[in-house]
Design a protein that fits this description.
229 residues, 0% strand
Length: 229
């Protein structure tokens, strides 16, 4: 279900974000959950428990069982389209993080500059592309997913937990974004994030350690930019 958080990165460019951003997040995740569940039901119906457990490519095996070799080609094309769709999302939103950091003075100013014609953060796009290429050369897809899952959920949990701090500091009436059933929903989310992180550590300590090392590489940069500001 990764990727839902990406919409937050472009909240500044969303019309009426207080209203539309929560709706987009809830509706988008709900649709994906429904599609994933239906997909897995289809796997079970077509392949059965034993074949599904032994399969390394259940989508391809399911389509092959239903339509033959043509089915495998169809699902391969569908996966390619889905991959390009996610790539489009990442290119759209992730460079905006570096651009916003630079605009706030906590990253190189060059990354805050937008292309004069297309208004895109070209420096950030190029930098992230180079980082992606470097990471691709370091290991398998599964390893990269482990690094990202470990790091993502640490900061998901910390971000949600920060809400308690901000609510305590600012006692003024809540405006803009509201959190339904606060603080219960926040506590549940933080506990879920902690569960994912500890599960990642237990299932693959080596990849979790590498993920922690990648996070630690950002500490000197954080200290440097904090001293400048």
């Amino acid at each position: 279900y990764g990727g839902w958080q990406q919409t937050n990165f472009i909240a500044e460019e969303i019309v009426e974000p207080e209203r539309n951003l929560p709706r987009a997040l809830v509706l988008g995740v709900a649709i994906v959950v429904a599609v994933y569940l239906l997909t897995n039901i289809a796997y079970l119906r077509v392949l059965g428990v034993d074949r599904l457990a032994a399969s390394t490519a259940p989508a391809a095996d399911t389509m092959r069982a239903m339509l033959g070799p043509v089915g495998a080609k169809i699902i391969a094309a569908g996966i390619a389209v889905s991959t390009f769709g996610f790539l489009n999302l990442v290119i759209l939103v992730t460079p905006r993080v570096l651009q916003a950091m630079a605009a706030d003075g906590v990253f190189f100013r060059r990354f805050a500059v937008l292309h004069p014609t297309y208004q895109t953060p070209t420096a950030a796009i190029v930098a992230l592309a180079l980082c992606a290429v470097a990471l691709t050369l370091t290991g398998t897809f599964g390893q990269l997913v482990d690094y990202v899952t470990f790091g993502d959920w640490i900061f998901f949990g910390l971000t949600a937990a920060a809400l308690f701090v901000y609510r305590k500091r600012d006692q003024s009436p809540v405006t803009g974004f509201r959190v339904p059933a606060y603080p219960v929903t926040v506590i549940i989310f933080v506990l879920a994030a902690a569960y994912v992180v500890f599960s990642a550590i237990i299932s693959n300590p080596r990849n979790a350690a590498i993920g922690a090392g990648l996070i630690a590489l950002g500490i000197p940069a954080f200290l440097y930019w904090r001293s400048r500001s």
